[in-house]
Amino acid sequence: MTYRSGFVALVGRPNVGKSTLLNALVGQKVAIMSNRPQTTRNRIRGVRTSETSQMVFIDTPGIHKPKHRLGEYMVEIALRTLNEVDVVVLVVDATSAVHPTEVEIVKELERVRTPVILALNKVDALPDRAVALQRIEAYQALRDFDEFVPVSALKGEQVERLAELIEARLPEGPKYYPDDMITDQPESHIISEIVREKVLLLTRDEVPHSVMVAVEHMERRSSDTLYVSAVIYTERESQKAILIGKQGQMLKRVGEMARHELEALFGNRIYLELWVKVKRDWRNKPALLHQFGFDRDR
Ligand SMILES: Nc1nc2c(ncn2[C@@H]2O[C@H](COP(=O)(O)OP(=O)(O)OP(=O)(O)O)[C@@H](O)[C@H]2O)c(=O)[nH]1
């Protein structure tokens, strides 16, 4: 059987129900860090894994904002992203008429080669379902959408149908993420990598490459502060002592260097707490390998 996988962008103006729809598509584990300010990096908002496919939903900063507030730069980023994904889903609200922002978004989407599916959301709130057809016609007049489907993200109506339509447009491909991936894993993975890099840089040959870092906890403490707790695993007590250093000096330097880089990358203040633990022979323990993400890049 062919396994399909790929990237999907949900676009649409504010309040049309993108988050609700995403939740309905992927289940509960979504948008843990949803209030992170816009950055140019594309954040993964959720992954839907089934027997037949894996859809990775990503954020597209920029396109959701009204045109006049869009810097050229953000438009470029958004368009580049939309060109790189496999499917774009334009989410619109069935309870209101075509909005000028949507006309703008559709115009921008003309510059994108990716197939676009129209999801007419909130059909449960229509007084008469026949209105849904009129709405769809109004959007179809703006552009010939590759597919369209009326849905109710809130009630879960037709969400599976939408998933089928998306799946049909995904290329053949592998599972990018493990089945139980939670949405912040790619970020925690980046954090682990950066901390590990600083450990190797600062301890030079004293601590071997076998050192590993696992992010244990991530939590948004305010709109611009992210709290991260991570454990650095070594294989021996002697390595642990080197890593901590005299009066904790080495660990402090590792933390400071990593924090600066992460703050620049995420555009957030980072509160980074580091711990060092000895874990003998972790390389032979599947559960730990999973935790460290070694089975992630299949
Ligand atoms: N009746 C109805 N309401 C819905 C549906 N989907 C979403 N809503 C409501 O619409 C409002 C906005 O939903 P969100 O999912 O936050 O919308 P969004 O597009 O993510 O909004 P932004 O984060 O501002 O971009 C919420 O009050 C939802 O409960 C639906 O299918 N039917």
UniProtKB/TrEMBL annotation:
<feature type="region of interest" description="G5">
    <location>
        <begin position="151"/>
        <end position="153"/>
    </location>
</feature>
<dbReference type="InterPro" id="IPR027417">
    <property type="entry name" value="P-loop_NTPase"/>
</dbReference>
<dbReference type="Pfam" id="PF01926">
    <property type="entry name" value="MMR_HSR1"/>
</dbReference>
<dbReference type="GO" id="GO:0070181">
    <property type="term" value="F:small ribosomal subunit rRNA binding"/>
</dbReference>
<dbReference type="GO" id="GO:0000028">
    <property type="term" value="P:ribosomal small subunit assembly"/>
</dbReference>
<keyword id="KW-1003">Cell membrane</keyword>
<dbReference type="GO" id="GO:0003924">
    <property type="term" value="F:GTPase activity"/>
</dbReference>
<keyword id="KW-0342">GTP-binding</keyword>
<dbReference type="InterPro" id="IPR004044">
    <property type="entry name" value="KH_dom_type_2"/>
</dbReference>
<comment type="subunit">
    <text>Monomer.</text>
</comment>
<dbReference type="GO" id="GO:0005829">
    <property type="term" value="C:cytosol"/>
</dbReference>
<dbReference type="GO" id="GO:0043024">
    <property type="term" value="F:ribosomal small subunit binding"/>
</dbReference>
<protein>
    <recommendedName>
        <fullName>GTPase Era</fullName>
    </recommendedName>
</protein>
<dbReference type="InterPro" id="IPR003593">
    <property type="entry name" value="AAA+_ATPase"/>
</dbReference>
<keyword id="KW-0963">Cytoplasm</keyword>
<dbReference type="InterPro" id="IPR015946">
    <property type="entry name" value="KH_dom-like_a/b"/>
</dbReference>
<feature type="domain" description="KH type-2">
    <location>
        <begin position="203"/>
        <end position="280"/>
    </location>
</feature>
<feature type="binding site">
    <location>
        <begin position="121"/>
        <end position="124"/>
    </location>
    <ligand>
        <name>GTP</name>
    </ligand>
</feature>
<keyword id="KW-0547">Nucleotide-binding</keyword>
<keyword id="KW-0694">RNA-binding</keyword>
<feature type="region of interest" description="G2">
    <location>
        <begin position="38"/>
        <end position="42"/>
    </location>
</feature>
<dbReference type="Pfam" id="PF07650">
    <property type="entry name" value="KH_2"/>
</dbReference>
<dbReference type="GO" id="GO:0005886">
    <property type="term" value="C:plasma membrane"/>
</dbReference>
<dbReference type="InterPro" id="IPR006073">
    <property type="entry name" value="GTP-bd"/>
</dbReference>
<feature type="region of interest" description="G4">
    <location>
        <begin position="121"/>
        <end position="124"/>
    </location>
</feature>
<comment type="similarity">
    <text>Belongs to the TRAFAC class TrmE-Era-EngA-EngB-Septin-like GTPase superfamily. Era GTPase family.</text>
</comment>
<dbReference type="InterPro" id="IPR005225">
    <property type="entry name" value="Small_GTP-bd"/>
</dbReference>
<feature type="domain" description="Era-type G">
    <location>
        <begin position="4"/>
        <end position="172"/>
    </location>
</feature>
<comment type="function">
    <text>An essential GTPase that binds both GDP and GTP, with rapid nucleotide exchange. Plays a role in 16S rRNA processing and 30S ribosomal subunit biogenesis and possibly also in cell cycle regulation and energy metabolism.</text>
</comment>
<dbReference type="InterPro" id="IPR030388">
    <property type="entry name" value="G_ERA_dom"/>
</dbReference>
<dbReference type="GO" id="GO:0005525">
    <property type="term" value="F:GTP binding"/>
</dbReference>
<dbReference type="InterPro" id="IPR009019">
    <property type="entry name" value="KH_sf_prok-type"/>
</dbReference>
<feature type="binding site">
    <location>
        <begin position="59"/>
        <end position="63"/>
    </location>
    <ligand>
        <name>GTP</name>
    </ligand>
</feature>
<keyword id="KW-0690">Ribosome biogenesis</keyword>
<feature type="binding site">
    <location>
        <begin position="12"/>
        <end position="19"/>
    </location>
    <ligand>
        <name>GTP</name>
    </ligand>
</feature>
<keyword id="KW-0472">Membrane</keyword>
<keyword id="KW-0699">rRNA-binding</keyword>
<feature type="region of interest" description="G3">
    <location>
        <begin position="59"/>
        <end position="62"/>
    </location>
</feature>
<dbReference type="InterPro" id="IPR005662">
    <property type="entry name" value="GTPase_Era-like"/>
</dbReference>
<feature type="region of interest" description="G1">
    <location>
        <begin position="12"/>
        <end position="19"/>
    </location>
</feature>
